[in-house]
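hiii so um. not sure if this is the right channel but i have a protein structure encoded as tokens and i wanna go backwards to a sequence. like what aa goes where. can anyone help
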């Protein structure tokens, strides 16, 4: 599908304006005309144009002056100049002055089309680059949701239902339950999947910068705003946006966000121009927003806007039957990533994994397996790979606040570590520990060391 743009044709000759409008409208662009530079500038303040086609020779404000004004006030607009008397000099001059391209008069419809298409592609590329940089930052990978258990299958059913729509989705669940993963998945199986998926980490931004981050700003709108900046909404245009940790935003932003969601339009900080955006909104939180509403921290109207379709992710302890599947999946993932041969998980380790309550949910399980793959240099993952520094601490509810350990805990740890360093060689380990093999065997049995 061809991408369309908002185009403004500034030319004192009505025939040219009409001809451009006719040709470009057929290519599904939205085209408006202005008969003078002054009028053109006024229109640009009201409305957002992506491309301006500008006649260099006009009465009143000259084309070159106008070009300069546009470059200063609307630096993200691509300007194509019409060089009236096909002099090479004026074209060169205009390009030096910051025009994106030029088209000599008289021109054919096809020539016009081509120049505009190039500009549209260029714009697309600029936005895409910004988006790609964003994506690199947030590490993108293939999304895959693991889980055969009923709670996860219920979630996936909902995901498949909601993905093809434009409905706003509120994803709730404890930390590490996969909220971002679900949002990404919804985007990827939605009709918007070829457009950007942009996340906004609401917990990480101070309120003053938040607006400019979301809505963009124009050059000079505040100290430090040295260049015009695209907001996340504009970058996400056509795609989806995820407000992560939405429960963390302050009252001012809540009001602005509500307006943006309701009106589907934004204005950049320091500008009065209204920009239409077409973005699918998703939000995630581990807070109980209803409680936040009751306590006066979160706007009720915003909550209703967001939770058109609520998706609640169960904590891992409620779908323990999938732990073996998840564990195998992560072993494979990290073995591949670290270019190690795929390891097996010893049955004892698997038992422990299944017994543990995983307060950090899937993320904690993932990190545990990753660490084990890094540490393990045997074919099978054993208990000491899993919990190297503080063996079996997985069973302690609260870690000891001062880090004090009993002598036998220390002895156990020391044996495990020495065994580990000497690659499980018991004779060498005994020798290093200054005990005989029989004593070592007895101690290993006592502490349940494999
Ligand atoms: N069902 C699942 N299958 C495979 N991987 C999963 C699953 N659920 C979560 N993960 C993985 O667990 C990690 C944590 O998931 P994610 O970041 O989506 O959680 P979150 O709920 O957004 O966490 P937080 O509240 O801390 O931001 C990610 O690496 C994600 O890929
Ligand atoms: Mg998250």
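sure thing!! here u go:
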């Amino acid at each position: 599908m061809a991408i369309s743009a908002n185009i403004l044709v500034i030319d004192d000759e009505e025939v040219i304006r009409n001809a451009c409008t006719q040709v470009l409208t057929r290519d599904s662009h939205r085209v408006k005309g202005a008969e003078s530079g002054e009028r053109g500038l006024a229109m640009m303040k009201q409305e957002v144009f992506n491309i301006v086609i500008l006649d260099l020779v006009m009465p009143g404000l000259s084309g070159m002056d106008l070009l300069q004004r546009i470059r200063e006030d609307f630096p993200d607009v691509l300007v194509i100049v019409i060089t009236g008397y096909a002099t090479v000099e004026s074209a060169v001059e205009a390009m030096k002055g910051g025009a994106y391209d030029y088209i000599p008069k008289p021109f054919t419809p096809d020539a016009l089309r081509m120049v505009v298409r190039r500009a549209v592609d260029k714009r697309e590329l600029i936005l895409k680059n910004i988006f790609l940089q964003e994506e690199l930052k947030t590490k993108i990978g293939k999304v895959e949701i693991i889980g055969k258990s009923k709670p996860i299958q219920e979630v996936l059913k909902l995901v498949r239902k909601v993905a093809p729509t434009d409905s706003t989705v509120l994803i709730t669940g404890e930390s590490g339950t996969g909220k971002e993963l679900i949002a990404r998945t919804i985007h990827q199986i939605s009709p918007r999947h070829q457009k950007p998926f942009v996340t906004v980490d609401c917990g990480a931004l101070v309120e003053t910068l938040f607006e400019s981050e979301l809505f963009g700003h124009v050059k000079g709108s505040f100290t430090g705003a040295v260049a015009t900046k695209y907001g996340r909404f504009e970058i996400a245009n056509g795609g989806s946006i995820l407000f992560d940790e939405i429960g963390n935003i302050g009252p001012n932003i809540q009001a602005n966000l509500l307006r943006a969601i309701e009106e589907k339009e934004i204005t950049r900080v320091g500008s009065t121009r209204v920009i239409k955006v077409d973005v699918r909104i998703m939000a995630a939180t581990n807070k109980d927003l209803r409680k936040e509403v009751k306590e006066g921290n979160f706007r009720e109207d915003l909550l209703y806007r967001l939770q058109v379709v609520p998706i609640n992710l169960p904590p891992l302890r409620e779908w323990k039957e999938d732990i073996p599947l998840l564990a195998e999946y992560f072993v494979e993932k990290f073995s591949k990533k670290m270019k190690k041969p795929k390891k097996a998980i010893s049955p004892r380790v698997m038992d422990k994994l299944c017994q543990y309550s995983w307060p950090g949910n899937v993320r904690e399980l993932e990190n545990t397996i990753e660490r084990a793959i890094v540490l393990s240099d045997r074919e099978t993952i054993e208990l000491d790979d899993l919990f190297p520094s503080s063996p079996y601490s997985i069973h302690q509810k609260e870690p000891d606040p001062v880090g004090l350990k009993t002598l036998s805990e220390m002895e156990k740890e020391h044996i495990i570590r020495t065994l580990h360093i000497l690659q499980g060689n018991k004779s060498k380990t005994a020798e290093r520990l200054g005990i005989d093999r029989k004593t070592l065997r007895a101690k290993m049995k006592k502490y349940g060391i494999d």
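oh and The longest helix spans residues 109-137.
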